[in-house]
Amino acid sequence: MSVVQSFRSRLVWGVPPDAVAGKPGLVNRKVRIPSLGVGAQDSLTYLESRCLECKPEGSWMRGVCMLHGDHGTGKTTIAGALVHRLYWQNCCHAFFWLHGTNSTQLYNGCLTLAKYLGLVDDDEDALEAVLARLRQWMKLHPGWFLVLEDVEDEAVMDLLDLPLSHGMVLVISRPAHWKSVPW
Question: Which of 34, 37, 139, 162 is most buried, judged by most C-beta within 10 A?
Fold first, then answer.
């Protein structure tokens, strides 16, 4: 996976390269956009419509969607295909992908993203300072799309405290019933 990419003057960070390369519906020899089975296509179509419902006329998408299922069911593939579709529909100006398996992995991803965006110096490493700067950037740059992959603890959303009125979050998880997530 490429850590930092820039495509067509939009910010793309941590996203699998297959998700934004090529043109809509076009598969070439260098880039493989995954083919999806019927069930996965249905999930993708539903997620896309749910995301686009959250896009008021003349503005960016906003809110939270959740994609959950057992290990190996294709959640990441569906999320990559969704990013591909939204990217080519110009639904967002920035796409980010973080792993939230544990707090260390999430922190490292947030820190690397903040450095990529030029929000922190190499010597800054306090989680709250990093998150505060990321939140501020997200408020000043509406129209971002964040994928949080492998989120096992619903406290991640509380910890991140993202400005959901300025962008969209897709949470990929195994637990199907979270009680405290606001959606």
Answer: 162
